[in-house]
Amino acid sequence: MLLLDQVVCLSVIKGRGNLLIADDIIWPDIPKRSPKTASESVYAALISDLHVGSKTFMREEFSNFIFWLNGKYGNSKAAEVAGKVKYLIVAGDIVDGIGVYPQQIKELAIKDIAKQYELAAEFFEQIPDYIDVIIIPGNHDASRKALPQPAIPRDYAEAIYEKRKIYSLGNPATVEVHGVEILIYHGRSLDDVIVSSPNIGFSNPEKAMKLLLQCRHLAPTYGAKTPIAPEPRDFLVIERIPDIFHAGHVHVVGYENYRGTLIVNSGAWQRQTAYQKKMGLVPVPGVVPIVNLQTLEVTCLSFA
């Protein structure tokens, strides 16, 4: 399970001369702890990977999700849950972007990135005012590709900033909502972790996210698929232990609790693309993990 470039400690026994015998491998890991929780029953909806502008963007299903936030979709029980949602946290890839991968232009319904953000802004505008919307960029958004990514610039996404109040942050970002600390990360490095680790696949992204917590680093391997900027300080080290670790990127919903930290990968709003089919990736789109911040219990609602 050790990744290239990962930092670990070795417990060794000194043998004869210069011989050292490794006795144990000590990971940085996060300590076992009790998470902080909200004092009242409020909910956070965790989503990512809308890919607005793609021909495979699930526009109708995402509209149903917006209707649900407004209490206009589903039964009375669903409407009751929707009324408790105070936060919508979007972990990147709001739009499909332009020129992200070869031949992408053939799979775009909207070929102008500013217009992609305009359509995304129309959806965000319909979200009730009492819900705080927090967004970060992903590798498809109009931000630099190298980690850490700054917030999505206004030059390309003016509509996002104009339509309603949002909190636009960089990738990764840490926020505290109702006393609960959430680490938000798009998840580009999950590609590197999944292909290099045994018993971890795209169908269980929460296991790859757990490995990042054990490494205490969001991109422990350098020089693979994940571009990393040469910053004077490493902003990808997990210095603070989050109560919730939220990521996306792999388009598959998965969650588990590890040592008191709730790990959630929030899936996508894009049907299987030709590239994903070629890679053997089967997405789980249109499913939203809803987290009760008082209990950290997860309820998955399907709009597909």
Write the layout of secondary structure elements.
Elements: E1 9-14, E2 20-26, E3 43-47, H1 59-69, H2 76-82, E4 85-91, H3 113-125, E5 132-136, H4 154-163, E6 167-168, E7 173-177, E8 180-184, H5 190-196, H6 205-215, E9 244-247, E10 253-258, E11 261-266, H7 274-279, E12 287-292, E13 297-302
Parallel strand pairs: 3-4, 4-5, 5-6, 8-9, 9-11
Antiparallel strand pairs: 1-2, 3-12, 7-8, 10-11, 12-13
Detailed description of the structure:
- The chain has 304 residues and is an alpha/beta fold.
- The chain has a single domain, classed as 4-Layer Sandwich (Purple Acid Phosphatase, chain A, domain 2), CATH 3.60.21.
- The protein is 21% helix and 23% strand.
- It has seven helices and 13 strands.
- It has helices spanning 59-69, 76-82, 113-125, 154-163, 190-196, 205-215, 274-279, and strands spanning 9-14, 20-26, 43-47, 85-91, 132-136, 167-168, 173-177, 180-184, 244-247, 253-258, 261-266, 287-292, 297-302.
- Strands 6-5-4-3-12-13 form a six-stranded mixed β-sheet, with no helix packed on it. It has a five-stranded mixed β-sheet with strand order 7-8-9-11-10, covered by helices on one side.
- Strand 4, helix 3 and strand 5 (132-136) form a beta-alpha-beta unit.
- Helix 3 (113-125) runs parallel beside helix 4.
- The longest helix has 13 residues, at 113-125.
- It is globular, with a radius of gyration of 20 Å.
